[in-house]
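Entry 14. Structure prediction run on the chain below.
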Amino acid sequence: MRILQINLEKGWRGGERQTLFILQGLQAAGHSVGLAARCGGPLAKRAKEAGIPILPCRGTADLLRALWRVRASFDVMHAQTAQAMTVLAVLRPVLKAALVFTRRTAFQSGGRPWRQRWKWARADALVAISAAAAAAPRDLGLEVQLIPSAVQPMLPDPAQVQALRARFGLDGHRVLVTAAALSPEKDPLTLIEAVHQLRQQHPDVVCLHCGAEGAAAAGARACVDALGLQKHYLFAGFQSQVGNVLAVADVYVSSSRFEALGTSVLDACLAGLPVVATRVGGHPEILLPDRGLLVPAGDAAHLAQRLAWVLDHRDAAREMAERAQAHVRQEYSVPAMVERYLRLYRGVVSN
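Output returned:
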């Protein structure tokens, strides 16, 4: 099959990582692939390094022109973002390919519901990465197939791990790690308060917060200063080698208020870490019934209590982490995800 993936995001986050995984898996299976991506963006750069043909686009207008040029060149066009699906919906009458859209967010869609339904219904197949991401289109009466995101093992570099420990003074501490942008939906303020409470009985705890700057950054730093946590809540910035970060951790924690799935939680599970996360989005799908600990979003006291349990019950926490690791290896592998998409593609092309 000839399959075009479409993703014009400017940065590198979970959706871009999944787009590259799909492209590499399809290519390895012998299919002809292409990528419409933003000029000079990290996704285009990494895909090019992997030998994947690129349709470079500066924005929506470029994408419209590019898709018009290749309208008869692909069997499947797969939109990986809402923006890309909008363009495909507009061009639907002239495109020869089957259209697929993967919804990677769990936010309620803004605007008028009939407009969202019209757009999503232009796809021959609508995919969601979790039940939470599928809820909005299902509420509009649309059929949705669940294909969760995937993760790959990320082997740490011992020298870089030691450098991280030295840089942040982690030796002699029990380390919590979170990987999340400093944005409101990730709710760093609740995690900071939870760490403050946790340290009352566990003074050796340090939290390493890895993630890009965002709208909540100033408030988070001010909260750390106000609570006197400067040596115990450390901002590490965006870390490209997540495996090294997970290797310094005793526990992984997510305080997000919204998550479509939670690939950072998947990464932590695959690395064998016990996980404490909010009961939102896809977190329950990953961690229930007995693969992790869940807490209500925004509840710092409950979050602190669950983190304390993990620190105080090392053997039970390790067994919990081992169950999660085995589950993620089986259900969230890249080959499993690619095979699910291939079955979907074959179905829409044959119809």
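The radius of gyration is 21 Å.
Filed with the rest of this week's runs.
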